[in-house]
Specification:
- The protein is mainly α.
- The chain has a domain of about 100 residues: Serine Threonine Protein Phosphatase 5, Tetratricopeptide repeat, CATH 1.25.40.10.
- The chain is built from twelve helices and no strands.
- The chain is rod-shaped, with a radius of gyration of 35 Å.
Amino acid sequence: MNQNHVSWSTSQTIGLSILVFSLLLFAPITGCTSEEAERQMPAAERFALGMELFNDEDYLQAIEEFKVVTLQYQATAFADDAQFYMAESRMAREEFILAAFEYEILLRTMPTSEFVSRARFQRATCYYNMSPSSRLDQENSRKAIDEYQAFIEYHPTDSLATVAEQRITEMNTKLAQKDFDNGMTYLRLEYNKAAVYYFDLVLEKYHDTPYAEPALLRKAQAQVARKRYAEAKEALDRFREKYPNSALGSDAEALQADVTAGLAEKKAATNQQGKL
């Protein structure tokens, strides 16, 4: 019985040894073959694989394939394509900060690429997509404006230039709303000097937005509250000249009555002092 047991154990040990030897023998060969195939896949095939994944909306895997092309095949005609679609994949995943970075790499390192104009537009669109409501910080709105303006300057005849102009107007309107809302907040709190400051910002920087009209009127209102009747009259005169058919006309008339009364009161006080 012991002899049979020893014989069986010896056979088992030999079998296991053969199995382990086989695994050790073939594992590195298989690994090397896989790595070799990955390394030697032509740039065209690697890019095509990335595009197939991109079109299937498997953007994360597409990014990996495009990354291989940009790193291993920088000197090929597919490098800029891969860089652009890597950025597009980030955009599709709404990773706007990373997408903007990838577009910037193309613009900086591949300035002759056919994708330059589109990359510049899309970089601006990254910031446009990150632009928050007017109540929040508007850094990304300002960046979007700057990037769209750069796009128009570099590519004035591009078909997307009109879209860029529309988005600049949209972002400027949002910035104007933020300053106007700040002015109204200070006006309600009776911090009238601060209110005038913000209304002036709207009038100086965003005079072509819908917020310029009410800003001019509310500036007059804040000046009346400060008893700066001459400045209020000047603002009202400008308001009537620029917006003769304004829906805020009745408010302007009410303010005009306050201005007239205030100026008359000041004149009477001045005359009284003169008599003394």
